[in-house]
Design a protein that fits this description.
The complex is a heterodimer.
Chain A (H helix, E strand, L loop, with lengths): L22 H4 L1 H31 L5 E4 L3 E4 H27 L6 E4 L7 H18 L5 H13 L1 H7 L22 E3 L16 E7 L2 H8 L5 H4 L1 E5 L18 E5 L11 E3 L4 E3 L6 E3 L5 E4 L8 E2 L1 E3 L5 E3 L16
Antiparallel strand pairs in A: 1-2, 4-5, 5-6, 6-7, 7-12, 8-9, 9-10, 10-11, 13-14
Chain B lengths: L2 H17 L2 H7 L3 E2 L6 H21 L8 E3 L11 E3 H11 L4 H28 L8 H23 L4 H15 L5 H8 L9 H31 L13 E6 H26 L5 H4 L18 H9 L5 E3 L2 E3 L1 H29 L15 H20 L2 H8 L3 H40 L1 E8 L5 E6 L3 H8 L24 H14 L8 H18 L10
The chains are: A alpha+beta, B mainly alpha.
Chain lengths: ~325, ~550
Amino acid sequence: MSNDSSSEIEVAGAHEIEHALRRTDIDPRAAKRAERQVAIMFGGSVLASILFVVAFVSVKSTAVVNLPLIGLIGLQNLTLGLASGLGLFLIGAGATHWARKLMSDEEIVDERKSFASDDETRGAVVESFQTGVEESGVMKRPLIRRTLLAALALMPIPAIVLLRDLGPLPETKSRETLWRKGSRIVTDISYRPIKPEDIPLGGLVAGALPADLLKVEEEEGNLNQRAKAAIILVRMAPDEIRSQQIQDGDFQGILAFSKICTHLGCPIALYEQRTKHLLCPCHQSTFDLADDGNVIFGPSARRLPQLAIEVDKEGYLVAKEGFQEPVGPSFWERG
Amino acid sequence: MSTTQRAVATTTTWIDDRIGAGKWLKKNLRKVFPDHWSFMLGEIALYSFILLLLTGVYLTLFYNPSMKEVVYNGSYAPLNGIKMTQAYESTLRVSFDVRGGLLVRQVHHWAALLFVAAVSVHMLRVFFTGAFRKPRELNWVIGVGLMTLAILEGFAGYSLPDDLLSGTGLRIAQGIVLAIPLVGSYVSSFLFGGEFPGTDFIPRLYSIHILLIPGILLGMLTAHLLLVWYQKHTQFPGPGRTNTNVVGYPLLPVYVAKAGGFFFIVSGIITLISAMFSINPIWQYGPYTPDQVSAGSQPDWYIGWLDGAVRVIPNWETVLWGHNISWNILLPALIIPGIMFTLLALYPWVEAKATGDKREHHLLDRPRNAPTRTGLGVMAITFYVLMWISGGNDIIAQAFSWSINSITWTIRVLLIVLPPLVFVITRRACMGLQRRDRDKLLHGRETGIIKRMPSGEYLEVHAPVSSATRAKLVASRESDYAPIEAPPAVDANGVKAPKKRRSGVKLSNFYFANRVIPPTDEEIEEGQHHAAGDLETVRPSGQITSGH
């Protein structure tokens, strides 16, 4: 085929459209049968709609049924769904069956016409446009043109500025957490303070928070502090710790790390006791808690920040100081 | 005139008197649409969208897009006394305390999954059959836009219940926003009304999910359908089908029944699935809290490839003068998808540059007849599927007890090696099929009869192909292009050929340097004549003629 732009192409060997007669075209009994089938489907849909109302008023929301392969499911959802599903499906099946068996299946032909206008029309369009532009005088009056362009260029500014109050400026909030020197460490579900002896060697506290979190959440009415402050605690033999970010940041082999993944912020909880590896369930970044919390695999680029801990006078675990680096995902200003 | 006829006449007259619809109706009531199963894919997308609008409106009657915390006290006992947002609480309420509410929620979710699936497969059909070629490039671009919005809309809806799974998805999305150079922290703070998760995001996402995106979707969908209507549907080659006609069944009655009926079939099947198969059981996940997560967290299927890309990328990050550029996030989540969707949208122009073809195309290609395009398409699918598999690397690791590290490394290698390999294999396979078609046209089809000649020679007898098959096969000429010839580097006047021209030649050669040239009519006539002769030799009454 040539690469030129000849407008139309005819397919060589275009032949007559084939048409074969269906059974329903020849045999009136077959046609009658198809008619009955269609009517049964439409009738079935009528029944299904009625059934829906019956199920709606009679099936209790607590009723369950055990179906083979599917298991235990709610009877209300099942009956309502089956009834309305069948009601819909049977209309469609009936209509399709009707079209396929009884409506004419002779294909008909429409001609296409090229969408392109003739050259004269195209010329007229260009001319109309030019006339319009000339009559406006926009080309002759640069002062109008330029001020209009300037006006249009600046017009979106209010719209963008309007978005400013969607939220406060980020400031340094992503660098700050609730942890301070002396913040008591509590478990995440029962908010119980933790003593070192609560954590056996090789043990893990999968979620811990600063004790004042609940009060702050009450005041602020959001979960923002929780999203930054969550930590995990692990205990290993002190000689198993190959390296840690903060000199003597552990307490008798108990190490505290941010629970928020430095990749995209998922809470990390999959800890392998033998290897001291911590795996993020979202994208599988793997951190070695015995070695600085460094990334040993996966997409995260940065180690998990460590929280230095000690015990207070009553013997409960507390933070020795706040986090020394921002927790959670990277951001432009992080450094 | 019967009563019905009179009623129709009265109605149409009333309308025609006011808006002159008569001319349009006369032309369009019996408008012809070609028939092929693959043309139903777009219909499935359309019907799931309609179902989404209907069920979505119902859900808004019960859902409360608020992040205010309340204590649950409802029919689902395991969560009683637990603090949660009103968004989650109202989703539980529609699931457990509204009769049929769970059904509508599940229909909405299943329809969304099907919607994106149908849009994607429909797009593949359009791609592999070349339906995007002139004059349908605009509709292709609208389609790419629709697909992008469909994915965004799906993710927005998935995030609204504010359960543990959806909240984790939002956390990841916020992490991606943070990675945007220069403005990431600001965009995140503005989107979330401060820090993550805040209390503003769900209500904001709600208006985006139920108003902004569906509004744009609806507008673009209308444009998409109007263009299909106005430009008339493409058709596959076959007897009587030419580039200047459209052969099929009339709108009234066949397509009113078939397409109208198909809406009910699609809705019915989605409803039946929702009756039997639970989807997104948010009550099992619990309310969102940023310090909890469940292992094996998976997004809806259409986000899987993005999630997989994020998982498979090496941990590259640059810190320059105190600023972080997170390539490990920017590349898989923004840059690579951005490039992929841009290339997708621009593809019609890429191919037009290679063919140099400015004609209109209304006859569809069989994928084999465009080997390079088909190869590129299968290559893209391979790339996509590999990333999608990567999105389930933890599930695979658990199911087969494989190391997650080796799975990730395998996928990294495959992502680079496999797509080009698949491209070469697919192109070869297409050309093989083209050669077979060419042989069929030239030598007829194999009859399976072996004839022994008096000389002792064995012949396989061929019969001429039917006229219908021939019409289908010769259509390969439509998509056969000779590569554009290189202009002389320096022309007679000593002017260098423009770079643009030369890149077009390169592209064209990449597409068409190796090609199977379809036979001309003369060649076919000669070949078929031979085949007919063959057939003659095996008929009892026929004279034995020489084989070929």
